[in-house]
Amino acid sequence: MLNADRLLPSEPRARQIARNLYEHTRALPVLSPHGHCNPEVLAENSPFTDPATELITTDHYLLRLLYSQGAPLESLGVRPLDGSPAEEDGRLVWRSLADGYHHFRGTPSKLWLDYTLEEVFGVTKPLRADTSDEIYDEVMARLGGDDFRPRSLFDRFGIEFLATTEGALDELDAHARLRRSGWNGHVVPTFRPDDVIDPDRPDFRDNLDTLATLTGRDVTTWGGYLDALRSRRATFIDAGATASDHGHPSPFTADLSTRDAECLFGRVAYGTLSPGDAEMFRGQMLLEMAAMSVEDGLVLQLHTGSWRNHNASLAALFGPDVGGDIPKSTDYVASLKPLLDRFGNYRQLRLVIYTLDESTYSRELAPLAGHYPALRLGPPWWFYDSPEGIRRFYRSVIETAGFSNLVGFNDDARSLLTIPARHDMSRRLNAGFLAGLVAEHRLEEEEAVDLAQDLAYNLARRTFQDAP
Description:
The protein contains 20 helices and 11 strands. Helix content is 49%, strand content 8%. The protein starts with 11 loop residues before the first helix and ends with a helix. It is globular and about 65 Å long. It has a domain at 47-146: uronate isomerase, domain 2, chain A. α1 crosses α19 (419-439) and α1 packs across α20 (445-465). It is of the alpha/beta class. The strands form 4 sheets. It has a 4-stranded parallel sheet with strand order 6-7-10-11, with helices on one face.
């Protein structure tokens, strides 16, 4: 059974304050401005067919830790690229998780899944090998009901705003069907152009051809290429998008002359890259995306600091996003300077930075966000979307950046079923951190109530949902 005081401070006075703060945010609407839920699920509104597929096979947090303990990814339902068999029986995949569930003690994955099982599905027994089949049957029975269809859950969870993430070449058919359906759920796409701005992608030049076909622009020229990207951004905005998102190896930015940018694009487009050209091109494109955001109002989100597919043999066998990505060191002060020199003082630009390099919080990111009007700090992401990660983040950045230069919380969820668990954990940790400041007489309790509501709702709304 979930403890009502989980994640709240252990000191009695701080705990009582935290309880009160949590109660002021517990029932607030959920804003999910960045995530990877599949809009097709909501467009179809068909019942979820299997909890193993929805909660295990697509969850890289679970995959990576079980793999580290010797579980073959095939046993968790992950199919190799060559078409070799993988476990298709959801009950057996669920048993594999249950057999290894003790490995998740102390992790946010266990907190999220325990919450999902109890609060979403009404399961009151702990997940173990001897309860695996019983819990699987209980969850399967509930998934068959109309009240567990995706749109019903969306409404039940109090989700006010959900942003999905689509590549620049996505035709946004699911979003169009959602708008035509008459359902009033607010679901929008996010423009993720990595597929057409990263020359290191093996499909990059094929993607340029598709970009030309979609937009009717001549992408063999620098000007035509930029016009094609503006066209795609406009299509996303017409579908409701309020943000773009960029997953780059580093935050490097560049501000080349038009002539130099044209020459660089020529080498990139025709596959005659010199060493360093790919990174230079990504850096130039971040600046170009910022310029376009100043024009069209899309929030520019930048996710950096991950060594993608570090386990090369695993990526070759299963493809990307199977748990082999590792945080690495990052430099923001020098890397962002060309972009900030051009646009850092523009209040109409909202540049949101997410990092996997915690060492930059107090040394680089908090001072930058505490100065430049355009810059905001995204919440702890991926490995640090965790109790201790969130606490370290607040301790590192608040004194320099303040609360107003944050963007609240976003869940980065892959499954609709896990969104409430992530927001509940965040709201409890917010309450605990703020309660500590009240107990130390650094905040008045009414100030802490305002801040708890900001962190849970208002900051995200101001940054993303109210974006032009």
